[in-house]
Design a protein that fits this description.
There is one protein chain. With 408 residues, the chain is an alpha/beta fold. Among the domains are: 180 residues, 3-Layer(bba) Sandwich (FAD/NAD(P)-binding domain), CATH 3.50.50.60; 85 residues, no CATH class. 34% of the residues lie in helices and 21% in strands. It has 14 helices and 17 strands. It has a seven-stranded mixed sheet with strand order 8-7-13-14-15-12-16, with helices on both faces. The protein has a five-stranded parallel sheet with strand order 10-2-1-11-17, with helices on one face. A three-stranded antiparallel sheet has the order 5-9-6. Strand 13 and strand 14 form a beta hairpin. Helix 2 packs across helix 14, helix 4 packs across helix 7 and helix 5 packs across helix 7. The longest helix has 16 residues. The structure holds flavin-adenine dinucleotide. One of its GO terms (molecular function) is oxidoreductase activity. Pfam families: Amino_oxidase. This is Amine oxidase domain-containing protein.
């Protein structure tokens, strides 16, 4: 078959890799000038660095299977990282039961309660038990008001904005149940996997056409089948004559975007923490990721990439704000995290904005998860709106790409 794939992100590349391996003739159309989508990176020294921070968890089997299939043996570096919480001016380690027992912002009884509830989420293997339950309600009820106010509410507001109170408890379950303390990073960067996918697709006689935005479905009329891997709003733009009922279903899944400041520092902001949850409503970013606490600085010319990230609606003021304003404002908060920080530590910076990075799974979203088949004959959809109950991640993008490749 002659198959068109729209999007050279991880989903599109994985689908193209397995389809081309099966002997199909694949053509990937990508609007950007590079392959890899949200997981793409650029050279930052001997290794690539992702535009958006990236790591995997121990249980992320699809991506590890893919790297095995690609012959990228022994590619994963693993590090015990954890995710400390910055609260009331202090960074609190938060990765083990002992850390929780020492977590002074909570009363002792609420530390125990939070620990027991987390254990329950960890041991309960069936997400369907949490379907139809709101995370905000459930967490308040079982972990207690204090834990909700100190730990979860600030994080959920920063992750989902005004949608926070509608988020499904399945999201929270997935977060606790499948995430490991040990984080994995591919030697050389995620771009090594992307480059290998690209070269294998080409070896299998597939074509990757960059800088080519598909604007209407009609352009793809000559293909036997087409797979669209961009976000639902991009699909709706392209396929305007879809039946109303189907359009409404896709529109029900809303998306948040990402605004990220990537700083190259001469010194690390933190000497030990990789991922820092910023539970302080006055600080405009929710995550602060000191990449060189996951991967050695020696691969980045002895410099220290630091990501500051905020998730927000593409309609928010932040999306319209000028890069320099965002940079100045966000950097002004770094002294709160490390009092020794000084702007002379910054070698350079870039601001990266993407409008559709996170499908928002609300309490009743499970009823609206689209299938691969669309109402248009031979036209398929494979994107992160279908990975429910999991949070968007390369592992699930690989899983999707593989599944669609084997279901055509
Ligand atoms: C801030 C941030 C941090 C993240 N951190 C992690 C992490 O630590 N670990 C992890 O596993 N995952 C992480 N992810 C998620 C991960 O990057 C994504 O889940 C994954 O890359 C999605 O791949 P995809 O191919 O489905 O989508 P995308 O990467 O979005 O690819 C879709 C592609 O389609 C193209 N496209 C869309 N419309 C058209 C069109 N009309 N014509 C042509 N091309 C089109 C786009 O340009 C894009 O390249 C993170 C994401 C973000 C935003």
């Amino acid at each position: 078959m002659k198959i068109a794939i729209v999007g050279a992100g991880i989903t599109g590349l994985t689908a193209a890799y397995y389809l081309s391996k099966k002997g199909h003739k694949v053509y990937i159309f990508e609007k950007d000038k590079f392959a890899g989508g949200l997981a793409s990176g650029f050279r930052a020294g001997d290794w690539y660095l992702e535009r958006f921070y990236h790591h995997i968890f121990k249980d992320d089997k699809h991506i590890q299977q893919l790297t095995d299939d690609l012959g990228l043996n022994n590619i994963w570096l693993w590090k015990d990282c954890g995710a400390p919480i910055f609260y009331q001016g202090k960074m609190h380690p938060f990765s083990s039961p002992v850390d929780l027992l020492k977590f002074s912002p909570l009363s002792f009884i609420n530390r125990i309660r939070t620990g027991l509830t987390s254990l329950y989420l960890l041991l309960n293997k069936d997400y369907r038990f949490f379907e139809g339950k709101k995370a905000a309600f459930w967490l308040k009820k079982y972990m207690g008001q204090e834990s909700w106010k100190v730990i979860w509410r600030p994080l959920m507001i920063k992750k989902f904005g005004n949608f926070y109170s509608f988020i499904s408890m399945t999201w929270m379950w997935a977060r606790v149940n499948r995430r490991s303390r040990f984080l994995g990073y591919p030697k050389g960067g995620f771009q090594i996997i992307i480059n290998k996918l690209v070269s294998e697709i080409k070896r299998n006689k597939g074509k990757i056409i960059l800088n080519e935005e598909v604007k209407t479905l009609k352009e793809l009329g000559s293909f036997d089948k087409t797979i669209f891997t961009g976000a639902n709003p991009a699909f709706l733009k392209l396929a305007s004559d879809l039946p109303e009922k189907y359009k409404n279903k896709l529109e029900k899944i809303e998306y948040f975007g990402t605004v990220l400041v990537l700083l190259t520092l001469k010194k690390p902001l933190s000497n030990w923490a990789y991922w820092m949850n910023i539970n302080d409503n006055n600080i405009p970013f929710v995550g602060c990721v000191q990449h060189t606490n996951l991967v050695s600085k020696k691969y980045y010319k002895n410099l220290h990439p630091l990501y500051l990230v905020s998730y927000t609606s593409r309609k928010s003021k932040l999306f319209k704000q000028k890069d320099e304003e965002i940079f100045k404002k966000w950097v002004s908060y770094l002294k709160r995290i490390n009092k020794d920080f000084n702007s002379s530590w910054i070698k350079n910076y870039q601001i990266i904005k993407e409008p559709f990075t996170q499908p928002i799974f609300k309490v009743d979203s499970y009823k609206d998860i689209p299938s691969f088949k669309t109402p248009i004959k031979n036209f398929y959809l494979a994107n992160t709106s279908q990975i429910y109950p999991w949070d968007r991640a390369v592992n699930y993008a690989v899983g999707l790409g593989k599944r669609i490749a084997f279901s055509l």
